[in-house]
Each structure stands twice: as structure tokens, then as C-alpha cells.
Amino acid sequence: MANMAQAIRMALHYAEENYQLHDVFGQDVGAPLGGVFTATQGIQCAWNSPLDERGIIGMAIGIGMAGKRCVAEIQFADYIFNTMDLLKLAGNMYWASHGQYSIPIVVMTPVGAGIRGSIYHSHSFDSWASRLPGWKIVLPSNPLDAYGLLLSSILDPNPVLFLPPKALMRVKGKELIPGEPEDEKELKAMIDAPIGDRTQWKPRWPRLKEYLIPLGKGRIVKEGNRVTLVTWGRYVGICEQVIDDLIASAMIDSTDVELIDLRSIYPYDWPLIKESVKKTRKVLFVNEDTEVTNFAEHLSYRVTKELFYELWAPPQVIAGRHVPGIGLHPNLEDASVPGADEIKKVIIALIQEVP
Amino acid sequence: MSVSSVAVSRKKSSRKSVPRLRLGLSHELCRLMYQKMLYSRILEERLIKIYRAGDGYFWIGGPGEEGFGVPLGLLVRKGQGVSYDYLHLHYRCTPTLVAMGMPMIDSIRLMMNRSTDPCTGGRNFSNHYCFPQWNVLPVTSPIEVQYVMALGTAHVQKRAQSPGITIVTGGDAGTAEGDFASCLVWSSRKGQELPILITVQNNRWGISTAYEGQHGEDCIADRARAFNIKASVIDGNDPIESYRVIKEMMEYVRQKGKPAFIEAFVSRLYGHSSASGANYVTNEECPVRRFEELLLRVGVIKEQECNQWRKEYEEEGFQAQQKVRQEPVPSGESIWNHIYADQQHPDWRRF
After folding, report:
1. Nearest CA of chain B to the CA of A212: how many Å?
2. Which of A220, A309, B57, B247 is least buried, going by the fewest C-beta atoms within 10 A?
3. d(CA B87, CA A65)
4. Neighboring chain A residues of B150 at a CB cutoff of 8 Å
């Protein structure tokens, strides 16, 4: 199975072949490296930009103003913060021009901790991004979703922030991407650049097919009926593992927890959350961005407001600690982002809570 | 008028038989430039009157930049799409828009934030123009962001081998921002040069802060020269010099596909904005009056004509204000319009 970096690469290739995508650019995005995560390796329209995040976002907006699509990469979300005003402008351009200039661009930037990345390679951006009206914001949790969400993002006429988790870039999926060869060694031989001299190397792309995941739609990863657990990005896999561990240790039943991968945090799939919470009457939101004015607080507020009389327990949010950064030592990182034990405890407490 | 432009133009005029001003441009063009400059000034003064009458909340604009802005607008390859020039303007570019053909009433609709405002639908300040039919991209309040957005349209034009170029303008204070440096860096990379005309209209002010306290360089154009960008420093209050140099630089950008830079010294005749009073300042040169005096002296225009034009333009501004007063204003519900370009409703309450 492809990993997420390979999935992104395949989506970009599909788009350059079929969606008139002519520009994939950013720091180290073009040859020879093809991105620090290799997510743009072998892409014909990928090119290297100066090491200048504001230049990258400005260039992308300008390309969008000319009515063209592009995918601009900020190498790590940690370095996107000095472009905040430009992101705001990209989000408001269609509105401020009274519907005269839409900006059909994708900004791709890997987010989150989990790679022992210390203070400037562990930032999350999802909650910050949720305060950028006019953008759509998506976070894939697996390679197939990365493929489907990225293709939808490229086709979308609005600016889209595509936020793959750093820690998942090398993680393989469980489902084949349409057109992907079943033998992962064959895929690797086809689309992974060799170590060393790459000047003569060219990828051999599989016969990929279109696969679109609508933006704004989540998915139920695992059905259950006593607690709804809503998460996205890196924490989908972590929460799935937590649930499996609890089931394996007989601390919960296999049908106790309904796990939702939100996929898009704006627009978001409220009907999916609502229906699930109406069924389970208890909800937990988990993500790794910092906890104060965390996006999950908005969701928790909405659940409280709209489903108050359906609830059997207060909605819970587990998020990253409100600290200035994530320290390098594992003890520091583990103490800064939601841990499996913390998630387990809250799940059990919610199940046990009697109204 | 600068000494150099006089000398050059005299040589040219001796070789041509068509009627030409001694200074190098035809009478018709000079008359047209003067009329556009006067029209732009009277429009800006009308906008200030609208602010003072309580018909608008804020004024910011470009009186004092007519000598540069009008020639720029007249020289633009005007149209929509990649084949035409893209304009990433700042908020003192009424003269450029007037030269391109913008009627007063559209600027007044913007000033009075009516829903009929063709630029923003009543959403943004005066002089924050947007005219897609002329590739005039949305003007923003941040003073620097246009310098990086311009890279994108120029990049698309370069790939399309378009006859159109990208024009980006700003003020001297905005050059302190990193986006200005980004524009110089990205547009001048060897083998990847971009077809951009970069201009700085230097009025020697950043709101209340004087140029002298903010710059160590002798002139801003030197920063462009450091990137091997062809650069020129001109008297932007002289429309003839402006026209000649802009034309030359535009031709260079079109033919070579490389950036060019103009630093134009201009005036700021009504202060930064209505926030600083919008009162006429007497210690800066008025380019409209200067050009008018020159054309009267040479006989290209007559006093009577000037009075007639002034009267016509003032009447047009007055009538436009009266008309716009009667036009509809945006509704509160319209805040949700034009957030997404597809069918997705942007309000989370509607998800």
C-alpha cells in the first residue's frame, strides 16, 4: 500500500495530467529533492521557490487571480505563521471583490507533532486555520483520503488548506488508491526516486483513476453507540488504536465507541456529528492543536447548544496543552499533546457516567 | 519639467512635422493628460466633500499623484485576461483609473459604500478599486501585499508568452515591508525573470513619519539596481517625463520579459487620509497646476477651456453624489454572499 507522501504525489500527478495543474511549488519542492517528505517527487510541474513563505503565498494568490490552479507548499506548518495576513487576504478576496475574484489555490503544509520535531517542526495549524473565513480546510488521516481530498481541493474554486500530518507521511494505508499496483515494491520501483544521482530518473506512473472525497464530509471509521469520539488528522489512527486496546483489554465493548474522522474542519460535517451524538448522547473531541480557543471548543459549544437535552454527559475536549512550543525530549512532547492514557480515561469515564 | 526631458524633446520636435509640444509629446496627448489629471483631482476633492458631508466614513486617495498616475493609466494595455496588463495598485491610484476610463460615479459609489459600488459592493474604503474587465485586481489596505501577489500574475503571463505585463505600484513607506524585497528577489532570478513593472510613488511620507527617518539608501531605486533590475528615478509631478519613462520601461518589460523599476517623486496634497484631516497642504507642489501653467504658457490649452472643464467636472461630481445618495445600500444579510465561489454555504449554522 502507498504511504501518504506517495498518495499525495500520485494525486498531484493525476492533477497535472487531468486538471490543468501547472504549478506545484515551494521550498525544495522541485528536483532533485521533490520535497522534504518526497511528496512532490517526480512531479513534472514542480519547481523550487526562494526560501520565502510570503513570496510563496503571494505567488499562489497571484496565480489564482489569473484564474489558474496551483498547489503551493509551505514546508512545515510551523513556518506558515508569517503569511497569516496573506492567508486572510486569500480568504477574503472573493468577498471583498463582491464575487469578482475567486482564488482557486491549494496551500499544502504538513502539520502536527509526532516526529520529534521540537519547537519549530511540531506546530499544529488546524485551529488557527479555522479562523480564516473563505478557506476550506482539510486534514487527511490516511493515504487514500489524502489522494481523494487533495484532488477535490485542487478542483475546488476556493482557496483550500490541505494539512497532511507530518507523522503520517511515511505511514502506509490499508486501502489501495484507484490504479495503484497491489505490490508496494512495484509502486516503489515506479515512483520513488533512487538514492544518489537522480538526474536521469523519471517516474513511471501507474494508471491512476479519479477519486474525489467531497470537502466538508466526514466518515464513520468505526460504529458504536455509547460514546461519539470526533477527531481528525493524526489522531484518527491514535484514537482507533486506543479503542482497539480498550476492547482488547475488555475495558469496553466493541460497540461502545463511534469514531468519526471529520476530514474537513471547515466546512465541517455537522449532520454526521449530530446524528451520532443523538444516538450515543455522549461526545469526546480529540485533537493536538493547543487547547485555548481550540476548534473543538466550537464543536463542543454547538453540541451543548443544539443537543443539550439529548446529552447524558458534558461534552469533553482533549487537546494540546496551552504551552508556547513542543519540547524536543520525548517527555516534553508527550506531555504537550493528547496521550493514549488520557484519551482512554475520558472514554471510560464517559461510558460510566450516569445522568 | 526636468532639464533633461526638455533637451531630448527639442531634438525630437525638430525632426517631426506633426504638431508637437516643445517638450516631446503631441498637443492632443498633453490636452488629454491635463483633462484626466484635472478630472481625477476634482473627483478626489468631491470624495473629500462627501466625507465631510457625512456621506462617507473614510477617505483615502491620490491627489498629488496625477502627474504619474494618469500617464500610467493611459499606457496600460487595457483588457481582461492574461493577454492584457494586470494592475496591482495601491490606494492612491484614482488618477490611473480615471485615465483608463473610470467614471466619477463609480468611485463615488465606492466612497459612499452603496451596493451599486462595482468594486466591492459597499464593503471597502475609497480608492480600493477592483475592475476585472481591466485586470485591476482588488486594492487592499495593507501597503505591501500587492508586491508579492504581482509575482503570480507575471508568472502566468510569462508562461503564456503573453503580450501583457504585470504592473505593481506602492508607496515609499511600504518598501520597508518584506514583500517589497520579495518582489525584487523573485522577479529578478537569473533565467526566471518576470515581466513586471514595479513602481514606487515616493511622496516622502508614511502617514506622519517622514522619509528621512526611515531610509538609509540614497534612493529606493538603488535597491532594485542591486538585483540587476533596470531602474529609473523620475519627477512624478511631471506628466511628460512620467509618460516618456513609463512608456520606455513598459516596452522594455514587454520585449525582454524582465522586470523594470520606476521611483517617481510625487506630492501628497491632502495628507494621508481623512484621519489626518484631509486638508490641502500648501508646501508641496501641485502637479495639476504646474502642468496647467505650462500648457497655458505654450498655448496648448486656453484659460476659458480650463474653466469650462473644471465646471463640467465639478457638476458631474455633484450630480453623481446626489444620484448615489438615492441608490441602495448593502443589506445585513448580504455578509454571507460571495464567501465561497461554489454552492457551499459558508455559515456553520447552515451546515
Report:
1. 16
2. A309
3. 11
4. 58, 62
Per residue in A61-79, pLDDT tens?
Answer: 999 999 999 999 999 999 9
Please count the residue pairs, one from chain A and one from chain B, whose beta carbons lie less than 8 angstroms apart: 150
A101–B138 C-beta distance less than 8 A: yes
Among A59, A89, A101, select the one facing B151 at the smallest CB separation: A59
- Are B152 and A101 an interchain contact pair (Cβ–Cβ within 8 Å)? no
The CATH number assigned to the domain with range A219-352 reads: 3.40.50.920
Residue B269's contacts (CB-CB under 8 Å, 6 or more residues apart) are B63, B64, B280, B281, B284, B286
- Per domain, the residue ranges of chain A are 4-191, 219-352
Interface residue A217 vs chain B (CB under 8 A): no
Q: B150 CB near a chain A CB, below 8 Å?
A: yes
Instruction: Give residue A349's identity as a one-letter amino acid code.
Output: A
Q: pLDDT class for B5, splitting at 50, 70, 90?
A: very low
- A305: closest chain B residue by CA: B349
Distance between CA A340 and CA A142 in Å, rounded? 19
Cα→Cα distances B117→A94, B114, B146, B299, B340, Å: 15, 5, 22, 39, 20
Residue of B nearest to A84 (CA): B145
Q: Are B173 and B144 in contact (CB under 8 A)?
A: no
Task: List all residues of chain B from 78 to 117 with a beta carbon under 8 Å from chain A.
Answer: 81-82, 86, 88, 117
Q: What is the CATH T-level fold of the domain A4-191, as seen in this structure?
A: Rossmann fold (3.40.50)
Q: Which domains does chain B have, with CATH numbers?
A: 22-272+280-325 (3.40.50.970)
> Which whole-number Å values give the CA distances from A164 to A107, A145, A176, A197, B332, in the listed order?
11, 10, 18, 28, 37
Q: What is the mean pLDDT of residues B51-75?
A: 97
Residues of chain A with pLDDT under 50: none
Q: Do domains A4-191 and A219-352 have the same CATH topology?
A: yes
pTM of the model: 0.96
- Identify whether the C-beta of residue A160 lies closer than 8 Å to the C-beta of residue A69: no
Q: Give the ipTM of the model, two decimals please.
A: 0.96
CB contact A212 to B (< 8 Å)? no
Please determine, for residue B20, whether its predicted confidence score (pLDDT) is greater than 90. no
Over residues B244-280, the pLDDT tens digits come to: 999 999 999 999 999 999 999 999 999 999 999 999 9
